[in-house]
Fold:
Amino acid sequence: MEPPLRTVDFTFMAVKHSIIFLAFSFWAMASKAQWYNPEKVSRKAQAVYNGAVEALQDGNMVAGKTLLRNALSLDRRFVDAWLSMAGACGQLKQYDSAVLAYGTAFELDSVYAQEMLLPYSINLAALGRFEAAQSTAERLLSKPNLHPRTVEAAKFRLKTYQFAVDFAAKYGSFSFNPTNLGDSINSAQSEYYPSFTINDSLFVFTRRGKGIREDFIKSQKTPTGNYALAKAVGGKLNEEPRKGGSSMSPDGDWLFYAAELSRAGYGNFDIYLSYATPDGWSAPFNLGGNINTEFWESSPSISPDKQTLYFSSSRPGGFGGKDLYTSQRLPNGQWTPAQNMGPNFNTTADELAPFIHTDNQTLYFTSGGHPGYGGSDVYLCRKGPAGHWSVPQNLGYPINTIEDEGSLIVTANGKSAYYASNRADSRGGLDLYTFEMPLHARPKRTLWVQGTVADAASGKGLPSTIQLKDIATGQVLEQVQTDETGRYLVTLPVGRPYTFTVNRKGYLYYSDAFEIAEQARDTAFVKNITLQAIALNQITQLKNIFFESNTFALNPASFVELDKLVQLLAENASLKVEISGHTDNVGKSADNLLLSSRRAKAVVAYLTSKGIGAARLTSKGFGSTKPIADNKTEAGRASNRRTEMKVVGL
Structure:
């Protein structure tokens, strides 16, 4: 089975666990008594205590705690019993009880118990009391003649406590109230690795079965907004028992997942792809040697445009442990050789569970090597306008704790997150929970546009290329291919203007613009697009050509649209076009005619500067003589101020 939560192979973490777990045998041998004298403990209490230590060493924490309570009922000043009780409670993650037990031991004899200051500080940190944990660790380090490993572990912990204190000072506190997804989703078995479609209508996750068995489970959202009773997904996806993390494409058509399939693969876990069909998910398709190796590959996450796959791998040649990698999907459906994401992401520890949000700009992942709270924490990186990733940002306490954190996913609205945990209200093992993301850790709220692309004459769906660009920077944010029927889905992070273009060889391209305000409603856009086959005398409007007010100077925001026109002319070498300019009826007719003519010539000049032959281009200004809307309204006048292209030669 692929474990849903990571185990940190980190020296300091091993030190931490050995200090807590082995403490109950070590404490009985301590000989630095001041006021407390172990030899004066009653024989009856000592005998019960010895039984408790034996139970604890066998891993039976509950029985051990019961015996410790019995020993303390016989002697309330039994310091070793209090320390052992604290260690047992810490192992059971009953941190409040552990801190109380440590406190009692220190009150009884602070000198005798001083070597337990480090686990005491760890339990304080587990409760979020980082300043108290910090002062406790400093108190320990002020003691003389400490063992070098104790000093090393204490200094490591002190560094994590300082990080926590600094983080709280910078971001403040935030509420964290995870809600169990309930009996429709969770069961007596463990549930983990959730994955959603962009509108949250389909929910797929992993459920642990008997032995090595893991199954993919699904649930559909009901009209009331709840999830229906989960059941195993249909098709061939669950035929093999050894499966791991999954990532569903936003449209729900593709499912990437990790598996160790019999008689298949390159060795260990590989990454596979299944397609949604009317009969359920298809048989798995191995993504091939550019992604998979004889080593471990897992925790895939597919970008919203289905063009970039993020995953984790233990292959050699990285920075240590498991590293994050990416691969790009080629036009022929193959994948490029995987590339290590580099030292910005990867460390000598393990990096796992990447999740790329539907904004295609925010990546979450877990790491045990970046500054944090002591175990593996969840981080985020944001992609800038030039495509460079920010320095990893810790999500902070209490999302991250002193424990090892697993993966999480964030919904398209950026507000809700889902993760697996074994909290007190778990139905059994790990359950799936949801919580509200703090503001500093939210991605861009993302809407989406979906529809079909079809031939204007026949209405038949057309496989086409759809490209989304940032108007301000010209950066390509997404490029998707429609399916064979012309269906598409493109995500739209709010707060920026886009050009939206559709291309297919032999057709005039389609373009539109989106201005998605931060306050936009959570409503998807539906846009069914028809493409005109290139034909003589055909006219199309160039919707994203902008000029400075009352001038013929092209606004740089026009370059995205103009470059698409350059591409069309380059792909159709015999095509000849006329560029025409039009204005509204405000002002003198002669001035409007001159302005429209100069604007058309400015477009032609741009095209020739990009290598398009001047003989293929003509320009003409029509002023206000060819309105397409009523000039009595501002909206009508805006429609009349336009640039058009007419096919004049094939």
About this structure: The chain has four domains: 11-171, 188-441, 445-533, 535-650. Residues 38 and 127 are 30 Å apart (CA to CA). Residues 148-171 form the longest helix (24 residues).
